Here is the input.
Amino acid sequence: MNRNPSRIQRRDVLLGAAAAGLGLASGSSWAQASAWPAKPVNLVVPFPAGGGTDTFARPLAAQFAKITGKTLVIDNRGGAGGNVGASFAAKAHGDGYTLFMGGAHHVIAPSVYPKLDYDLEKDFVPLALLASVPQVLVVNPKNMPVKDFREFLALVRANPAKFNYGSAGSGSSHHLAGELFKIQSKTFITHIPYRGAGPALADLVGGQVDMMFDGLGSSAGHIKGGRIKALMVAGAKRNPAFPDVPCAAEVGLPDYTVTTWYGLWTPKGTPADVQARIVDEVRKLGQSEEIKAIWAGNGAEFGTMSPQDFGKMVSGEVKRWAQVVKAADVKLD
Here is the structure.
């Protein structure tokens, strides 16, 4: 019996699209899929360069060019916690030549932005989980000269409101990770929103902010270079890329589980067979030795779930973060 993974995955995408009311592809769209990519593909990254999304998007673009011979153009469109880029991508033509790389920020957005002009679950088709990486608490070692998490916690508790943390923007996963930390650690730290993780991280390195709750991927290089200090990774286990950094469960926060993840979507209306072709190419990217090495160095894992399972994960994350937003009483215009 033929159990070729790419054929099974392609079949699942087609069946899922049909179930969603997209219908089976016509002969002309089958021809379109077989030719994809026939020209450069635009990848909308909804944050400025230098942030976590960009950290993973650029190696993917380089590998995409090697595998397909076509260019994956990184289109950085930052603002409003990732919503400016998402809104732009949602309105793009569904032909497979505009893709959207969003993530944890976008499952939080429906709960904190009441006036969004796009719907992640209705205006996009989920294709693939690209990277999953734990959040990490990082500090500027000059602003906060602490040896470990215990000293950090004592310092913050003794000085409520004195210290601040930067985020990729109000309503971003960085922001909610900080608010969740404050609830569970019974501390108060001032939130400083930026127009993306890149600018926030640059200011952390420069000492303009004291700490961040960042995705390990974007912080990894600065941690290794000694420019910032990692005190804790979220979750119940240490990360293999940084085995000396304790996990949240070890420092007394067993329920602090926050993962930064990045996924790939296409605008609604993209033919099912084109979706399947994109998923096949993404699978090849994830199997390349270059991507495996880069992901491992950043403490990340490449997703292997089907588009249908990724869609279910997204729906579950929307519900989970809605509960955190309510508990933290986060309200934005």
User: Anything to note?
Assistant: Residues 150 and 181 are 14 Å apart (CA to CA). The first strand starts at residue 41 and ends at 45. Residues 17-26 have pLDDT under 50 and may be disordered.
